[in-house]
# Entry
Amino acid sequence: MRKIAFLLTTLAIVPSYASDIDFSEAYIMRDQMKPNQITLGGIQVGEESTQYQVDFLTDENYRLIPQLEAVTAENSDNKQSLWHIYKLLKSRKWVNLTHPFDGDIPHWKGFSPMTTKALYTYDDGFLVLEYCHVGQWGTHIDPPAHFFEGLRTQEQIGVEEMLLPLVVLDVHEKVAENPDYQLTMEDITTWEAKHGQVPEGAFVAMRTDWSKRWPNQDAMQNVDDKGVAHYPGWSMDTLKYLYEERHITASGHEPTDTDPGVATTLDDYSLESYILSLDKYQIELLANLDQVPEAGALVSVTWPNAKGGTGFPARVFAILP
# Structure
């Protein structure tokens, strides 16, 4: 069985004796002639307009086993409480999409390793560590100001851009055959044929499974004997489609760069530059994309609220449907 949940308003009204009804083998149906009435297990349960949180267990035949909780003044603030949504989300699987970081992790070729210094120790009564690292360290945000003066710094990105629908474009099998692989329009149209249009405002992640090479810097950079790096990246036509036609909020990937390794070897960062020029942000060095579905999940993307910040380690996680 699988569990589904939603709100029913003016549909499911359970009177005071509802607790005495056995719903363990119930079916739910809606009378086309009486749109404000539903029947549970053949028992009419009301027409009065009341809002209920309804959780169901359903089998492959869509037999529903409901658990109903009225939204009342006692358990919601004037029926505007979001606590029932929290209860639902808490019941789902949460997946960390962030690498832990220290001084010895994969990073962009121009950066020095992070250092850590103990300013106070437990002998002093508490432990305080001083971390010294570049903004773009570990799983991190690149805000628009990373490339463009005058565009948004990280504290200027609103919190409404930090909880988004998660779209995962899975090309890991193609990358296994070709480490220089770049995302194609066919990859996107294939996704949309399966799941529908990429939702407006989404966070789109490119799954390559490159993060499985973490924390080996050499494996992540994958440089050949001629000094050319080989790792996957986006492409300009796919980014333009996603940002300009589907109006996504942000994007992210597992390698150190938006652009493929063969381009960054030549210091070509035109794809990252394009994203940031739109006053959009991106996340680099994502982890565990193999543990989330292609569609239906939510992603939380957060980072410290550093004034004037042009990059910082981020904490990213997904909530699965």
